[in-house]
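User: Predict the structure for this protein chain, please.
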Amino acid sequence: MSTVGMQVRCGAQKQRELRVSNTAENIAVVGGKAATYGGAAGAVVSGLSISEWGVVGGLLIAVLGWVCTQYWSWRRDQREERESAARLEMKFGAHWEDRCDG
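Assistant: Here is the predicted structure, written as structure tokens:
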């Protein structure tokens, strides 16, 4: 085998080793972050009493209710807008907007 072939094979092997090394480092970093966030979440969860959990639950339900109300109001507005346009079209014809602009 020629020296060029050996160099190519050695270069490919070094790249493979670097990828494995980088992968191992990435796994360690991700594991460290997960442990940190998990520990912080555990400290928060274990530090809350039952009444505090009730407050958190109530806040979550209130926010969820507000989001749902906003969504359904938006849908009602869209539906009423389409209905109004259809009524005006039936009353004044297909191009009623052109006649109203002046």
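Helices lie at 3-46, 50-92, 96-100.
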